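Sample pair:
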Amino acid sequence: MRGPAQPASAKYRLEYPAVATDLELLDRWRAGDLAAGNALFDRYFDDMCRFFENKRCHEVEDLVQSTFMACVKSRDRFREQSSFRTYLFSIARNQLYKYFRQNRRHGADFDIGVTSLADLETGPVTQMARDDEHRALLNALCTLPLDQQLLLEMYYWESMDIVDLAEIFDIAPATVRTRLFRARQMLRETLAKAAGTDEPDKNSAENFDAWVRSMQDAQPGKP
């Protein structure tokens, strides 16, 4: 059975209001209701656009489309052991890695645990940055290994908890905690090096976390 190939129109939003849960829409879609599938994808369209825009991809709309189509193909394999949103982000992560592997330059290595967006020479962050602080943070994130960048962005800006991240990255919760600690430390060191010194309001781990989370409102697609 074919599924929705594009975000829902206003007609679907009226037919399936916000009170319908993701799993209710998924059940209706699996039963053959394409409008429910479109409404479900429409609910996460902005999230997916923001995810790919933050990676400085040149084909954001195509990547969003490929993520939704991959979800169409695998919808019956989703066992509802996590949220649909978590499941969709795990697909988006795989689509992103596939995109970079297919578009890397001849002979260029691509290792998600080593390669950064800076290594891939993707586009500038200028258009995504709200101000100098936001630009500095985005630039620092782009120098981290891609898997670390995604882990931090999903933790800080997409409000994914340890269990969600373990599902998305297909690793144990304890491993998530270890990787988060290392990624946070690397980000702090990168920002400090770029600034020439630690800024006082970000010295403690608590203040640093609060500062990074405060950048959530600057993300593309955020209301």
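The chain has one domain: 44-218.
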